[in-house]
Specification:
alpha/beta, D-Maltodextrin-Binding Protein, domain 2, 2 domains, eleven-stranded mixed β-sheet, three-stranded mixed β-sheet, signal, transport, Phosphate ABC transporter substrate-binding protein, PhoT family
Length: about 290
């Protein structure tokens, strides 16, 4: 068994034990364990940030075996709400907090501090059997608001388009709505998916489907389209995202209550370290 796999299994056991015995409260908890002091934090939120946070936590806990990091997805809105309610140490988000969320946080005595940890490129994905290779912003908007419903209207085959979307708690849902749909509502028959992974899986199995995912979720089971915002079609490659030529690039965030301290600070600093940045690249995102 590899060092990383062993560390991950140990971590799962620790997290399970904390849950069973009710010791997993919020904050940089400490518990005497022989000669070492165990520390734990809870991170929750964006499914886009989720694979990055998981990979970073695995690496961090290899170097810091006395620490436990529990990571939960659910969407940016879910993580931000948990931070506002004092339930987590770090909220993961693929969008900036809204003014109303900041007000709610301050009402609860929470002072949200934003940390940009990486950059992502939103990828438009279709089934590999779909002959369409690129779409304009205008075409994407028309598909998602319901003005285009057949692939033959955008150069594809005579097939009804199956439109996939994340749920409204997702930061990617909000970002796509603002950037591509210009604030318009999603079409009524869009199929809502609870996670980014669910979109990837559905697109891989349905030749008529279209969805949007973070670039780290791209694999051989889906095809990423080039998108054109008016300056020519650009693919979601690392070069295009880092140069700013790809039009759907965005920052990814951690939020804490006030300036981070203790284990939360150590973890955030690790993400921006040389090892952390290597992990960001490995996952498929780009260091901030």
């Amino acid at each position: 068994m590899s060092k990383k796999s062993m560390s991950y299994m140990i971590t799962l056991l620790l997290v399970t034990s904390l849950a069973l015995f009710g010791a997993g409260c919020v904050g940089n908890d400490t518990t005497d364990s022989g000669s070492e002091e165990m520390q734990s934090i809870i991170i929750k939120g964006s499914d886009t940030v989720l694979p990055l946070a998981q990979a970073e936590a695995e690496e961090f806990m290899i170097e810091n075996p006395e620490s436990t990091i529990s990571i939960i997805g659910g969407g940016s809105g879910v993580g931000i709400a948990a931070l506002i309610d004092g339930e987590v140490d770090i909220a993961m988000a693929s969008r900036a907090m809204k003014g109303s969320e900041i007000e709610n946080a301050q009402t609860n005595g929470v002072d949200p501090i934003q940390q940009t940890i990486a950059w992502d490129g939103i990828s438009i994905v279709v089934n590999p059997e779909n002959p369409v290779s690129d779409l304009t912003f205008e075409q994407l908007k028309a598909i998602y608001v319901g003005d285009i419903s057949n692939w033959n209207e955008v150069g594809g085959e005579d097939r009804e388009i199956v439109v996939l979307s994340r749920d409204s708690s997702s930061g990617t849902y909000e970002y796509f709505k603002d950037e591509v749909m210009e604030g318009n509502e999603y079409r009524a028959d869009a199929l809502i998916n609870p996670s980014t992974g669910a979109i990837t899986q559905t697109v891989s199995q349905n030749q008529n489907a279209i969805g949007y995912v973070g670039v780290a979720y791209l694999d051989e089971t889906v095809k990423a389209l080039a998108v054109d915002k008016g300056s020519g079609a650009e693919e979601p490659t690392s070069e295009n995202i880092l140069s700013g030529e790809y039009p759907l690039a965005r920052p990814l965030y951690f939020y804490t209550d006030g300036e981070p301290t203790g284990l939360a600070l150590e973890f955030i600093e690790f993400v921006s370290s040389e090892t952390g940045e290597e992990t960001i690249f490995e996952v498929g995102y780009f260091p901030a």
